[in-house]
Design goal:
4-stranded antiparallel sheet, about 350 residues
Length: about 350
């Protein structure tokens, strides 16, 4: 008893109570920006996150000793097919992994990794979308289970979100400034809105002949609560008011910059630029709020700024851009530069 207590105390004093440095988001060994010089850079590559080893600090001798004595070890799960991605606005990012059947939780400041793989007694099957509300609660859509789940910021399951009709294939999800949740249902060809208390409000958007959604997949919401929907089989982004009125569109079908072949994740930065991931083009494109193409980043490959069927995208309050590089089994991190960088 005293021996075990001594080991635990040593572990705490030497390892557990030590200050952990937050993850350095920029890899100084790689200097890649877009557009290329002499143009002023607007996007800078920061780093890749390939899995837990890039987050959790290397084990010291004391931690190894602790594991030998207690038998305790951490479960390690690498990315299988990272898809949706979201964050709490601070240091935590969540990555829905469709092939692994779980959600990865990465705390970049505390350098901790954990996983969510159940909703109560039900196991996740194919988590696709993730979103976080203003209180830090996590929402997860599962396309195969055809359900949307809510967890608190400790990963504890709270409830399901239920509409008047059952979900068919929920996918993208986003939360607006009023803590209203917008859930895309691919097969229902529409979105469902839930209020701050998770009660169903209505379908979305307003149904107007000739403007119907065609297999929507993803959704994002800007600071003015405008709603951006990836209208996949119409090969465009549709922009709506909070009330569901169509305000405009971005993009069209094609293989040239400014067009889409397989649009996926969507996000908006602090200057209201719209970022759209295209899995076929292996890039993400940036548009202004009028729908004009500003820049595109990426091509096929495994290097920095190269992708293999990317899916999700998330932009935090500091304009860090996280892209789920799905078939490269990693997350790439970029920085939107608000002005000309002098460094």
């Amino acid at each position: 008893m005293l021996h075990n207590l001594f080991i635990v105390l040593v572990f705490c004093s030497v390892a557990g109570c030590a200050t952990v440095e937050p993850l350095a988001l920029r890899d100084p060994k790689i200097n890649a920006v877009w557009p290329s010089p002499p143009d002023s850079p607007r996007i800078r590559f920061l780093r890749m996150i390939n899995g837990p080893d890039d987050i959790v600090p290397a084990k010291g001798k004391v931690q190894h000793l602790f594991e030998l004595v207690t038998g305790e070890t951490n479960i390690r799960v690498d990315f299988a097919a990272p898809y949706g991605i979201a964050g709490d606005g601070k240091s935590v990012i969540y990555i829905a992994d469709t092939d692994a059947g779980l959600v990865h939780k990465y705390d970049l400041n505390d350098r901790e990794v954990s996983f969510i793989f159940k909703a109560g007694e039900e196991e996740l099957s194919t988590p696709v979308g993730v979103a976080v509300d203003g209180e830090g609660n996590l929402y997860v859509t599962d396309s195969v289970n055809a359900k949307t789940y809510k967890y608190n910021n400790n990963g504890e399951f709270l409830r399901e979100l239920r509409a008047d009709t059952a979900f068919k294939r929920p996918a993208g999800i986003a939360v607006n400034s009023r803590s209203e949740k917008f859930v895309v249902d691919v097969l229902a060809q529409k979105l469902f809105i839930f209020d701050k208390d998770d009660r169903f409000i209505s379908d979305f958007p307003k149904v107007i002949k000739g403007e119907e959604l065609n297999y929507p997949s993803n959704v994002a919401i800007d600071s003015a609560d405008n709603v951006y929907v990836t209208d996949s089989m119409n090969f465009m982004i549709k922009v709506y008011s909070r009330e569901g009125d169509l305000k405009g569109t971005i993009g069209k079908i094609g293989d040239s910059p400014g067009s889409f072949a397989r649009p996926k994740g969507i996000a908006v930065d602090s200057d209201q630029h719209v970022y759209v991931v295209d899995a076929t083009h292996d890039n993400f494109q940036i548009f202004d709020k009028e729908g004009n193409l500003l820049l595109f980043i990426g091509n096929s490959g495994q290097g920095p700024g190269e992708f293999y069927l990317p899916s999700g995208i998330y932009i935090d309050k500091n304009d860090h851009v996280f892209v789920a590089d799905t078939f490269n089994r990693r997350v790439q991190v970029f920085q939107y530069l608000k002005g000309s960088e002098k460094q």
